[in-house]
Target: Coproporphyrin III ferrochelatase
Amino acid sequence: MTADSAPAGHGVDVDALLLVSFGGPEGPQDVLPFLRNVTRGRNVPDERLAEVAAHYDHFGGRSPINDQNRALLRALRERLAPLPVYWGNRNWAPYLTDTVARMRADGVRRAACFVTAAFASYSGCRQYREDLASALGEAGPGAPDLVKLRLFFDHPGFVEPMVDHCVRALGELPEPVRAGAPLVFTAHALPLAQAVASGPDGGAYERQLRAAAAVIAERVGQRVGGRHPWQLAYCSRSGPPHVPWLEPDVNDALAALATGGAGSAVIVPVGFVSDHMEVVYDLDVEAAGTARRHGLAVARAGTVGTDPRFVDMVADLLAERRFPGWERPALSTEGPAHDVCPLHCCDPARPRPGTGTAAAGGTGPGGTRGPASPGRRRPAAAGVPADLHVHGPG
Ligand SMILES: CC1=C(CCC(=O)O)c2cc3nc(cc4[nH]c(cc5[nH]c(cc1n2)c(C)c5CCC(=O)O)c(CCC(=O)O)c4C)C(CCC(=O)O)=C3C
Ligand SMILES: [Fe+2]
Model:
């Protein structure tokens, strides 16, 4: 039985899919307005914006991300036909607000939302729910219900293509330094406060990254018939130096590997689903440059992009919500992720159990599951606004 031919159960029926992504500039004149959209309300100094703008200038002022999403949109339309598939971004056209307005005009009643972020975090999950909620607010009465599909960090449709990409990258390393080459899994750095607050009980971003990396590394070892040690590192850190962020930075991790005597490494951008700017600049230019200066041979593993298994995964995530009892594959003990984010999920300002304070300034992301038992819902503290729901349960 396929996702398209199953009998209707008591699941959530949908009449469209909405592809939700970050967006990026498409020419030099877009770069600053795009960066202002990304950083709106956060007082990012102009020097930082200029520094990031220079990364885009390196590529003619055009991010590859929108073309990559156009390709994913085409693949999803083909896979899901006749279901209509729409596309909207947080930070650049087509903006979610315009897309949701168009869906309303087209008479869409309920759409499933596939967000191009695999891991729990404010930027990767909650902020997209805020974006969807505000697009609904702007569209007004008659706007479609929006149902966000679950996070997919350990879904086989994500893990298996990444295993292939790691195996291929290992093959690109010079033969003498290939055996036992360390796998350096990378994801976007987060301010520690956001990492601490990620997921329903905190610390989910790093736990999910480690879970996905462990599964991928294990399968790579099985495929090539040899063990490859792995570690997690972070790219694209920004923000003032006195604010703590997740560490180590990928550049420091590569330098430390070289100092420790490693001859090579594979950089695995597990935190991203396409080769956008944070990959082709921050990893392929910056981190690869660091490696070269330290005499470390590196290869970079590809991202899932439009791999047919990844496209099938979206169809399966949709089927999970439409048909109760549909298999919910998850290859690690961290998954499958929840369908509906509980109150305060990924909210950096959430009250912390026992302290009555927000997560900011908490301890490290590894040991931050608060004293509350995971199944118990904390009562909403006075003054905390009602949480964000873009849809009702089931
Ligand atoms: C978790 C995460 C993902 C993965 C999940 C997801 O995909 O959503 C992601 C993706 C992306 N991040 C991207 C670009 C940027 N991220 C920035 C800034 C930030 N990202 C953050 C986190 C994440 N980011 C954070 C905590 C910040 C700082 C605070 C803030 O600003 O929220 C800035 C501002 C400048 C700077 O300070 O670096 C830019 C330009 C692009 C587009 C690339 C292209 O154009 O091809 C993509 C896909
Ligand atoms: Fe979340």
